[in-house]
Write a structure and sequence with these properties.
Helix content: 25-40%
Strand content: 15-25%
Largest sheet: 8 strands, mixed
Oligomer: single chain
Number of strands: 12
Structural class: alpha/beta
Distance between the termini: 125 Å
Radius of gyration: 34 Å
């Protein structure tokens, strides 16, 4: 009797223990299921916050003649791109026959400075000639349309209005203005800077000699790819994709840095800005603010300018070897 009673007393606690463990197990399963459901509900929100673009490609446009004001705006855009940590690459959309030498050089230096910090790709639209090509040269790659006009690597000095012949008293023989020989030397120095910059950045791709380059011919987009002035035929979308690839971006967004077109009246184009904004000292002849001072304008521009009197144009140092005739004008 003692043994039987003892076994019965031991069985009841074991039964109770099993019931408690079952309840705990069911509660644990319930908690796990609830946790999984809650996680599934909130997971899409978490995924959405981490699946944005890898970075940004900025598109900077220049679709006018080049003067100081136009150059300053593009230079500001390039500086903003360099200083903005969210921008990883730049595409220059260029449609310009060039303009003032100094303004074109400033753009060249700004593009070169930007290309040292991030990929820069240029997309030439209708025209990328003279100063318009000069500013594009430091780009990592240059894309063109098949019929684009490219090249015209040269400089010219010109007067827009005939120089005054008033008698003046000066402290030196050159104070009232240099001689034609001095202007010729200045033009030659500017040409050498232009040609040298092209050779520095495009030398490995160029099929043109330095002399042929300084002849200042223009070429179609297809011809410019063949002779190495540009890299490939492609539109702006292709250029954006190339810039993104260089920056290592698989998923990216594009930001257009727009501004009102500022076009030089010297090139016979319309300006979207009120001419009165130029003020009384606006001097289109020199692309600067010199009032009524009559000085030569040094131009890296392709085409003709209304009312100009050409003083000197840059020329090759020797007769170039025969080449395949190129389309387009030969004005520097």
């Amino acid at each position: 009797m003692v043994v039987t009673i003892g076994c019965t007393n031991m069985a009841r606690p074991l039964t109770t223990l099993r019931d408690m463990l079952g309840t705990i197990a069911q509660s644990y399963v319930t908690i796990v299921v609830v946790a999984l459901l809650v996680g599934a509900a909130f997971a899409p929100i978490a995924w959405g916050t981490t699946s944005g673009p890898d970075g940004t490609v900025a598109v900077i446009e220049l679709n006018s003649g080049i003067n100081e004001r136009v150059a300053d705006e593009v230079i500001d855009d390039l500086r903003e791109a360099r200083e903005n940590e969210s921008i990883n690459a730049v595409v220059l959309e260029v449609d310009s026959p060039g303009g003032g030498v100094t303004a074109s050089e400033s753009l060249y230096l700004a593009v070169e400075r930007t290309a040292e910090e991030m990929p820069v790709v240029t997309s030439i639209q209708s025209v990328g000639a003279s100063g318009g090509y000069y500013m594009s040269v430091p780009s990592d790659e240059i894309y063109v349309n098949p019929s684009s006009t490219v090249g015209s690597v040269g400089v010219r000095a010109t007067y827009i209005d005939p120089p005054t012949r008033d008698e003046q008293i000066t402290t030196g023989p050159d104070k009232a203005g240099g001689t034609k020989e001095q202007v010729k030397q200045q033009v030659e120095q500017m040409k050498q800077m232009f040609v040298g910059s092209v050779m520095e950045h495009r030398g490995d791709e160029l099929e043109l000699s330095e002399t042929e380059l300084s002849y200042a011919k223009t070429y179609t987009g297809v011809e410019s790819v063949e002779n190495g002035l540009t890299d490939e035929v492609g539109d702006t979308e292709v250029a954006i994709g190339a810039a993104a690839d260089m920056a290592g971006l698989n998923d990216y967004e594009t930001v257009e840095m727009d501004r009102d077109a500022m076009v030089s009246p010297l090139l016979g184009m319309e300006s979207t800005a009120d001419d009165s904004e130029r003020g009384p000292d606006g001097h289109p002849q020199t692309y600067g603010d010199y009032g009524s001072v009559n000085t030569p304008a040094f131009l890296a521009v392709w085409g003709t300018v209304d009312g100009e009197t050409v003083i000197e144009t840059s020329r090759p140092s020797e007769t170039p070897a025969p080449t395949t005739p190129a389309t387009g004008g030969e004005a520097p």
